[in-house]
Amino acid sequence: MQRIGLYSHKVKSYVPYIAPLFLADIDNRDAATARQRLLAVGDSVGVGPPQLREDGFISPGSVNASVVNLTTATLGIGTLAIPFAILNAGLVLFVVFLLAQAWLSAVSIREIVSALNTTELSSFEEISCVLFGRKLAVVVEICILLFCFGTAVSYHITIGDLGWAICRKFLNYDQLPWFFASVFSSRTGFLCTLSVVVLLPLCLFDKITELRFTCLIGLGCILATVGVVVYGLCMEGFSPEIVDHWDDFLLPRGFHQAMSALGVLTFAFCSQPNVPTIFYELGDRSIANMTSAVSRATGLCMCVYLVIGFAGVCRFATLTAPSIIQNLEPDFDNDNEAVVMAYGLLMFAVSMSFPLNVFPIKLTFEQLFIHAGISNVSGKSGMVAFLVVALSLVFAITIPNVTTIFDIIGATVGSFICFVLPPAIYLKILSLSGSLFCRRSGKAWVVLVTGSLLLVIGTLTTMA
Prior knowledge:
The chain is an all-alpha fold and 464 residues long. The protein has a single domain (37-45, 57-463), classed as Amino acid/polyamine transporter I, CATH 1.20.1740. The protein has helices at residues 18-46, 63-74, 82-89, 91-119, 124-132, 134-170, 178-184, 187-203, 212-236, 240-244, 255-268, 275-280, 287-316, 324-333, 337-371, 377-398, 403-431, 442-463. α15 (337-371) packs across α16. It is globular and about 65 Å long. The termini are far apart. 49% of the residues are buried. Residues 1-55 have low confidence and may be disordered.
């Protein structure tokens, strides 16, 4: 009979007695192994570069494919709010926040991978059920659903705003057939069409690696948009406010503004819900290879945030809007070719990133289907994707401005999933062998305490 606890996709249901059985199994037979594996994480990273044979630049299951998926999952519409975050926090504090968030994100992802590698389970839900019991597993599922769905709605809204602006600019409705004119003459019609033709098919893929080329193209579009912002700075020059009063932009504009900037950066580095899927799709699955992918993806995201943030603030100064797209609207209306191209590229990039918010939801329901013994999991997963896209579309149409709701979800659920749950899992595994305060637990404690503070402060600031 196969051992209970350390295998994937075999738990039949979240029943009250599963967690005690699992904990007993790990505590009695696997504590020493778990501790040795966790303690070996740091040493394995320093041995040397991971040896992974890749047949192509982004071949399926390669480290490069994981870098692309992680970077695309991280870079999204949060990138557009970075200039406003610099304006609120000041350049000095923003750099401190940026470095801190990047470090927290990298460490938390490494802790997730360590837990996946140690327990041989494949999702947050399974690990949470094993270590903390059924109730927390349900909480984790709800948090993942809320976080990813809220992000998907915000992506849907951004796609609608950008795409409809492009339609109004380039389509001559008088010359279009009646059907197409009626569809594309409204934001609702455009969103419905794009959701059915583009977003839903992308969300029906079974694996994230199947989207590696579209993700790479989407990543290129985001980088091109950053390039357009930099190009605008080169053409228009620095704002007189920056030139004459540059020292006013070094320090934060207030406590509430600084906390708002911190919330933006918290969301900007949230890719943890996709980590289990990306890790288990690695061809040579190891902590070293995943750590390499995380380091490269985090470094690229930091560079992008610094470039677009600095360029945006230097050009627009105190006029910097919550989304840099708002600052580019006059250029778009005046037929600035670079900005028009940026609108199109950004819409494409956000569309390519949209499925990465749906995959964790699909994975959550797949776990529930498997646990319940339901057959045809692939077909049921497709139905879940359809419902997520449909509900996201409804919210994007009926509530076109979800800034407050989105901030609350990012500050609470996002902080919990990304910076509280991963170190808690890591420390729980260490505690099973009596090593809760060992040398390797130091970083986990820092992430846990910092994540808890972000959770509390972010929630209070958003609700104030």
